[in-house]
Amino acid sequence: MGTLDNIEVDITVELGATNLPIHHLLRMGRGAVIELDAGEHDPLFIYANGTLIAHGEVNVDDGHLRVQITGKTSRRR
């Protein structure tokens, strides 16, 4: 297992998406809200090195955000 300890994986969790003109983005200040195309109970998409690997959901536990994996994606060849 020692060899696996040195492998880095980039994990990305996608909550939702939106299209936003750059001039709107540049005018935003601290505390600005960006509305996404996903609802509060929609699944999250979890990527490893840019590849979708699982779906999940956000949970709040004692004031901390947590991503819980609800299902893995099947790998097709």
Question: Number of folding domains?
Answer: 1
Which fold name fills CATH's third level, the topology?
A: Surface presentation of antigens (SPOA)
Low-confidence segments? none
- The strand order across the widest sheet is 1-2-3-4
Seen as an oligomer or otherwise, the chain set is single chain
Helices, strands, pairings?
Blueprint: E1 11-14, H1 22-27, E2 44-48, E3 51-61, E4 64-72
Antiparallel strand pairs: 1-2, 2-3, 3-4
Task: Write up what this structure looks like.
By secondary structure, the protein is mostly beta strands. It has one domain (4-72): Surface presentation of antigens (SPOA). 8% of the residues lie in helices and 38% in strands. It has 1 helix and 4 strands. The chain has a 4-stranded antiparallel β-sheet, with no helix packed on it. Strand 3 (51-61) and strand 4 (64-72) form a beta hairpin. The model has no long low-confidence stretch (mean pLDDT 89).
